[in-house]
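We were asked to recover a plausible sequence for a given structure. The inputs and outputs are reproduced exactly as logged, with field labels preserved.

PROBLEM: sequence recovery
POSITIONS: 182
GIVEN STRUCTURE:
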């Protein structure tokens, strides 16, 4: 019995190692640069993919990058200063998020210092490892993300394909349903 438990543990260690090596294959993420120019973000609207990073570069004055619309922080994505003390702000788009992220500068929002990030997902939602196929590696990725989603769960949680705020067996069934080349 003890030996069986030990063997199970070794299998889990091996699986974990495979998950880690599988996840490091995700290398197609891009960095999109937005520059603060006076009271504008340039470009004001960008289109990115899930997992990409947006980087804002400060030029002058004192600003913030704050996600939300109507000059109200959405308390979901980001709220960072962009000034001489913090001349670069970055945000990594969650891997499973798609949709629109509006953002603004807190001091200059009413002067229409705003921006838009369009996050357009790929057409292969089950491909967590980014190798253009849904296969056993994606099941290992699910295992590595297993459990309750971090708070706040909506609107994104990596590995939660069924969007029920927990990564569980249902997500493995979802992977199986998406099985094959993208
Ligand atoms: Cu500003």
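RECOVERED SEQUENCE:
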């Amino acid at each position: 019995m003890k030996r069986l438990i030990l063997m199970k543990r070794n299998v889990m260690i091996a699986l974990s190692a495979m998950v880690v090596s599988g996840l490091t294959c995700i290398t197609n993420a891009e960095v999109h640069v937005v520059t603060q120019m006076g009271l504008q973000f340039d470009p004001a609207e960008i289109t990115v993919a899930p997992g990409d990073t947006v980087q804002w570069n400060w030029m002058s004055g004192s600003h913030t990058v704050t996600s939300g619309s109507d000059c109200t922080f959405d308390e979901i994505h980001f709220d960072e200063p962009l000034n001489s003390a913090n001349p670069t702000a970055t945000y990594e788009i969650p891997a499973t998020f798609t949709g629109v992220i509006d953002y603004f500068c807190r001091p200059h929002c009413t002067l229409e210092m705003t921006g838009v990030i369009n996050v357009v997902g790929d057409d292969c939602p089950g491909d967590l490892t980014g190798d253009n196929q849904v296969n056993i590696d994606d099941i290992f990725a699910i295992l590595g993300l297993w459990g309750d989603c971090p708070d706040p769960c909506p609107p994104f949680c990596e590995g939660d394909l069924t969007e029920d705020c927990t990564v569980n067996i249902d997500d493995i069934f979802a992977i199986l349903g998406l099985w094959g080349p993208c």
